[in-house]
Amino acid sequence: RENEAQPNEEMSQYPALRAALSEKQLQHCFGYIRRLTRKHKPYPHSTAAQCMLCDEMMWRVVEKDGSSYLEIMTAKCRKKKQFKLTGPYCYANKKKRGDIQLILDRDKKRLEVHRAINAVAHEIRKPLRKLGMDKGLATLISCSSGQEYGAGFGGLVGAEVERINDRNTNRNEYIQSAKDLREEKSALQKKLDKDYSAKTKKRIRQRIGSLERQIARLEKHHLGSKLYHRQHERNQRNMERVMNTSIRQMLVAEDSDVLVKEDLTFTREKLSKASNRYEAKVRRKLSSWTKGRLDKRIEYLCGSLGIQTIDVNPGYTSQFCPRCGAHFSERKGAHHETAVCSNCGEMNANTAAAVNILQRADDKEITKYMPYKKVKLILEDRYA
Hints:
The protein folds into 3 domains: 2-40; 51-114, no CATH class; 130-312, no CATH class. The protein has 10 helices and 14 strands. The chain has helices at 2-5, 15-20, 23-40, 153-191, 198-221, 226-254, 277-287, 293-305, 349-360, 372-383, and strands at residues 51-54, 59-64, 67-73, 80-84, 100-105, 110-114, 130-135, 141-143, 148-149, 258-262, 308-312, 330-332, 338-341, 345-348. Strand 3 and strand 4 (80-84) form a beta hairpin. Helix 4 runs antiparallel to helix 5. The model is unreliable at 1-7 and 267-271 (pLDDT under 50).
């Protein structure tokens, strides 16, 4: 409270001194007194130590009268202190004794000797929890447990691919115009080497200057790349953010020890030519995100969490039933996410593919780099 915070002049031992000093002088005086008090007042005594570390040169165990004694060095020269051990000491080694730690237990009134020793570590093996994972476009990750992550990823990829396609289509007109102007400029420059009159060469140079200005105007206002790359990079960062979030959610929720995934490290040269416009459109979307980004992020995050990754052959994992082994008779849905089996009925095609990927980790007949046609023959023979 305010009245307690102010100094009481009646209780002061030096009222005359307080009356003679101003408020500023009193503040300097109080500060000086505090500094002297901190400097000369005795420090508080520390609590007694309860632990002492002794290296291998400061102690040894001696046997005397059928008992074991711990002998440690003291502060006095050639004076050692011996403590009788309550039990036999079986870890004494003259070659390498190691460090010990003396701990005083005041409650039990005893001195404990702690020493680290080499013991045989028995590895407790537990069954590994394996998880199959299928990479998709409409749904980013589908697991063999039936859970899916990154459901809205396909919309982001599709919107970005179509935006770039429309942008490039609009730029083609200006690209062709700039190309035509450069060809005309090159043809005029060749005419300057021929034997023309000075007046004709002057008109040619004027036309070349006009073409250069038109080309510069096109490159500045219609063919610039700064805004083009900035917009594309911003959308790419957004897709990577969704990708990282989905992978982390999957790894934390599933809590697996081994992650089995399909090896999709294919290139354009290995793919056959697109048969129709729909297939070409799908491949444009795939090429925007399957160039190692998803696979690298999965391996990095699995490595940081200590999860083992296994790559398997991806051939026909989404076309055969994981229960009976029959070939799917139909795929339906907006993104072909529903598969129809003639024996088992309808099921989620993505999670079914994840189950096939998980089963393929223990399949010794289908290897990682086996051709797709041979994989199909093996699967058909098994069902037959």
